[in-house]
Amino acid sequence: MFRSVQIMGYRGFSRYEMGDLARVNLLVGKNNSGKTSVLEALYLLGAGGDPAALWRIANRRGERFDGRRPEIDVSHMFMGHELSVGSSFSVAGTNGSLPQSVVLTIEDRAERPDQNELNLLGDEFELSRRRLLISIASTASPRPQILQLSRQGGLDPEITRRLPGSRQDAEPNVHFISTDSLAGNELVRHWDQVQLTPNEELVLGALRFVDPSIEQIRSFGSGAVYGPRGGFIVKRKGEAVPFPLGSLGDGAWRMLAMAIVLTQCAGGMLFVDEIDTGLHYTVMADMWRMIYSAAKQFDVQVFASTHSYDCVYSLSTICRSAKTEDAEITIQRIEADRSTATPFSGAEIRTAAERQIEIR
C-alpha cells in the first residue's frame, strides 16, 4: 500500500503531497479543491503510466477533439493547459518500502514534410518540422513509452491499443469508478469473473443493502452490447418475473459496480469519485462496512471522494468498530490553497463525529 504520495505539475497542482495514507482513504474538500485530480493522479501512478488510463481520464472529463477519429486533448493534464516542449507532470509514492513513480514529459522530434508541402513552399520551407510527443517513464516499465500527438495536440485511442505496454485489453487490478459508475458492457465483463464463485455472495449482499428482497442476479453475457445500465436482471423474493437491474435506480447500480470491481482489484487499488452518488444516507454505513471488509480480504487500497457529511459520518461508524485499526482508515482534506493534505486518523474521525466537528 502507498503510505505517501507527491504530485507535481498535474492539472492545478504545482506540488501536492499526501501522507499517513491507509487501507481506506476518503478525500474531502470544497468544490474545485482538486479531489478528482488527486484521484486521477494516483490512478495513473497505480496503473504504472498505462496509456489507456490517460484516455479514460480525459474521456470521462469530455476533454476530446471530436471528429471522424476522436482524440483526447491531453493539454489539460498539464499546468496552464498548454503543450510545450519540456512540460511535464509526475506522481511518486512509496508502496511498502518500494518507491514508485510515473513521469509524463512533452518532447519533440524532427519530421520530414511530405513532397506536396515541399512543392507548395519551395526552398523557404525548413527541411524538418517539429512534432510533439509524450514520453511516459515509469518504474513499472524498463523503458519509456513514446506516444506521438496529432498536429492539434490530440492522442488517438488506437495508439494506446497498439502499444505493447498498454493494458487496454488486459484485466488490471487498478480501477477507477467515476460519478457515472461503469457502463453495462464493462460491468458485465467483470461479472463474468465473479458469477458462480464465492464472491457472488458478496455482490448480492451489497445489492441487498439497497433492496433486501433481491434474491438473485444474472447477466445476459459479455457477447452483446448494452446501454449504460443494461446487461443485468434481478429477481426479488416472492416475485416470479425478473426485471432489469437498471429499474432499481442509480444506488443499486453504484453498489453493484463497487462490489464487483473490488473483487477484481486483488493486490491493487480502487478509486471511486463521489462515492455516495445515488445512495441514501441510511445505506452508507453498510457500504463502508462492505468496502472495508472486501478491501482487507482482497488486499485492496481504496481512495474515494465525497462532499457529503452523511458519508463522512457513516465512515466514523466503521472507525468505532473494535475490529478496525486506527491506521487502516483516514480522511484526507484537500484544500486548494495548501500544498499538503490534512490527514485525520480513525481516532480523530471518531472524535469529530462524536463532537460534530466539521472536517470537510
Map the helices and strands:
Layout: E1 2-8, E2 16-18, E3 24-28, H1 35-46, H2 51-61, E4 64-65, E5 71-73, E6 88-95, E7 98-111, H3 115-121, E8 129-138, E9 145-148, E10 154-155, H4 157-162, E11 174-177, H5 184-191, H6 199-210, E12 214-219, E13 232-236, E14 243-244, H7 250-263, E15 269-272, H8 284-298, E16 301-305, H9 309-319, E17 329-333, E18 342-344, H10 346-354
Parallel strand pairs: 3-16, 3-17, 11-15, 15-16
Antiparallel strand pairs: 1-2, 1-6, 4-5, 5-10, 6-7, 7-8, 8-9, 12-13, 13-14, 17-18
How would you describe this protein?
- The chain is an alpha+beta fold and 360 residues long.
- The protein folds into 2 domains: 48-165, no CATH class; 175-354, P-loop containing nucleotide triphosphate hydrolases (Rossmann fold, 3-Layer(aba) Sandwich).
- Helix content is 29%, strand content 26%.
- The strands form 4 sheets. Strands 2-1-6-7-8-9 form a 6-stranded antiparallel β-sheet, with helices on one face. The protein has a 6-stranded mixed β-sheet with strand order 11-15-16-3-17-18, sandwiched between helices. Strands 4-5-10 form a 3-stranded antiparallel β-sheet, with helices on one face.
- Helix 6 (199-210) runs antiparallel to helix 7 (250-263), helix 7 runs parallel beside helix 8 (284-298) and helix 9 (309-319) crosses helix 10 (346-354).
- The longest helix has 15 residues, at 284-298.
- It is globular, with a radius of gyration of 22 Å.
- It starts with a strand and ends in a 6-residue tail after the last helix.
- Residues 116-128 have low confidence and may be disordered.
